Predict the structure.
Amino acid sequence: MVDKKECKNCEDCKKYQDQAFELEVDEDLQQERLNKFWQKYRWLIYTAVVLILAITAGIQLYQSWWLKVRLAESDKFEDAVIKLYGNQEADALPALTDLAENGRTGYQYLARLEKAGYAVRQGNTEQALEDFKALMDSNAPRALRNVATLSYVGHQVDTADPDTLLAQLDPLKDDPAFIGMTAELETILYLRKNQPDTAKDVLKKALAMPNLSEVVTTRLQALQQMLENN
């Protein structure tokens, strides 16, 4: 007579063997599919790997080249500025001009700004305004374009058309970094237009801006007090 417990164990063994067989068949099928996939697409995979390696190498080479360009232009700009303030204009100005016209990094814009500043110091306002305007219309970082705009307006705040200058200042009046000088220039321009109340409003709005430095606040308050007394 067969022991029921032994019979049960035999059934379990058979069930386990069937599952093992099914797993083995599945593994064989998967291996076969992988082999077919590899045979069909191996050249695409090879190409993708080569492209990834080439792109990675290209990026590294470009970054290395760009770093060399930046360092070279940095050294050239620094050397030119030192010579310019050391009364060696004959050597400094050609270097700055070359950077301003042919530079590939942000130093081209710094060179333009330095050239414009030199023109101001030499009393050549016309050339300075031309250089400031070129920088304003360039792709320079916004901060540099704003500096050029303030300089451009500031050097003709008493002479040029007030409405034109006010339009040029308009993008700067909400920028905390430039609000002080912008408000001062706007005040002068509105006074030229005989609009003292508007000038006072400009100062009031500027003083309400958050995070104003103590120096800027003091200047604007002094200008505000002067308008109130007149």
In short: The CA atoms of residues 150 and 182 lie 7 Å apart. The chain has a mean pLDDT of 82.
